[in-house]
Design goal:
mainly alpha
Length: 147
């Protein structure tokens, strides 16, 4: 098996450049060059190498979560896809009029229960820090201004 065949077979198994580098001892540049020449010779679209088709079930779940206001990252994690893949599928479904508009993020309870509470807690902490800073709490006692 040639170096290029080895690199291509590892890449098609889903290995990243870093993993291929570790397995073969080759540089990322060498790996990228071999894959680029392979793509050109085979006429492979670089953006579609590891793509798997969307099922009707996945599209229905994507549509349901998106309409409920779920963030793209949460949808991607739930579907086992990348955020970029989810965003692309949303764009495709919108262009084909198969995607209804999203509602507010507050309507999506599972995400609100963590993300929104975290944001609220962060906002409270920032407010408390700002108030303490204005009072001079960060200064030694003898340098504080009288209130």
């Amino acid at each position: 098996m040639t170096t290029r065949e080895t690199i291509v077979s590892l890449h098609l198994k889903g290995m990243t450049y870093g993993e291929i580098k570790y397995a073969t001892g080759l540089s990322r540049g060498t790996i990228g060059g071999h894959l680029a020449r392979w793509r050109k010779a085979e006429g492979v679209d670089p953006g579609r190498i590891n793509e798997r088709a969307w099922t009707a079930t996945e599209e229905a779940e994507l549509s349901r979560m998106f309409r409920a206001g779920a963030p793209v990252d949460a949808i991607a994690k739930n579907l086992g896809r990348t955020p970029k893949a989810v965003q692309s599928r949303i764009s495709i479904m919108r262009s084909e009029d198969r995607m209804a508009p999203a509602r507010e993020a507050d309507d999506y309870a599972p995400e609100r229960s963590f993300v929104m509470r975290q944001r609220e807690a962060d906002a409270k902490m920032i407010s408390a820090l700002a108030a303490a800073f204005q009072r001079g709490d960060h200064l030694p006692q003898d340098m504080r201004l009288a209130a």
